[in-house]
Amino acid sequence: MTHPFKRLCWLSPLLPLAGCEAVVLRPSGDIAARQAHLLVQSTLLMLIIIVPVMALTVWFAWRYRASNRKATYNPDWDHSTKLELVIWAIPLLIIVCLGALTWVGTHLLDPYRPLDRISAETPVDNRQPLQVQVVAMDWKWLFIYPEQGVAAVNELAVPVDRPVEFTLTSTSVMNAFYIPAMAGMIYAMPGMQTTLHGVFNEAGEYQGLASHYSGHGFSGMRFKARALDDAGFDAWVAQAQAGGEALDRARYLNLEKPSENVPPMTFAQVDPQLFSRVVNMCVEEGRMCMAEMMALDAQGGLGLPGIANVAALSDPGRGTPRPVLGLPPFQVSGICTVEELDRMLASAPAAPQPRDPSPLRGRGLDAPQGILGLGLIPNRLTQSVPQVGAEQNL
Fold it and tell me: Which residue intervals define the domain Cytochrome oxidase subunit II transmembrane region profile in the entry (predicted)?
């Protein structure tokens, strides 16, 4: 007689699945719930085809087995209009339904689209979303709260039933921000800014992670997402503000260095321009911001004077500097701040004057008509632009 335990041995491979949690199908936020519904509906539509095909495969194998002498043998059969109609019409209808469902869901659940409701029963009304700036580092997450003036590493706290607008970027490589119980996944990329909207409808502690491989410390790039009531969130902000440590540019550069399994920490004060500088890759002193560089390029560039607008790298280990015209490794120095750039662009003339094509010769001569000649950069800032050596014909 076979022991009952031996009969159940074939179930042993299923034991590891007992530790899995179906977070995607048991969400705690409205966006994640709508994504789960879309996933279930799409699966059920596809099963309309998959289940009959699998059942018919077994039935045909049994019906037309070699030992079944009662099965009809028709070697000259080659076409059936009814069968062709069933084979092509039903899958076509399923594809049309899946396409319509996907099209509507893609636009309705666009991560850039502000929320149109808190839950199925609660509209957004006039609730302002909580702004959270997210920076993906090697290998940790930085969360900046510009309204509250605090920041946290590997810890996210948000109020329940309040929309959250995430603004994301990265420091080095592309990464993926994902809180399965709250919203979908969105990529964070260096030098770029992406947006994700989400909401928590139930208080609790949830798992957040990086869902895109980003290097050696990827496995430890996880954080706790805490959904709190309004009083609990205010208490969390007050506790962070009482910490005392400030997140300025120098502290950020130290934090940016690769590190693994970093414990949660908070900062009481944050440089208000920090996230903008991270996106524009100009946190270091003396580095030109991308926004400023693109604005100069849009106006025609600095021309020949820009060749001498360089400064020696203080840390040759960062990046891969390349000599230009025989100069030592360099980086472009900033000419103005982001705020000065905004004012500069706001006061730019509608019709720029034509540029002077003649080359710049010697020290002290006027620069060709361009960014400098148009007066778009303050005079006190243009004094910092080095001039080419005397009597040097460029």
Answer: 16-113
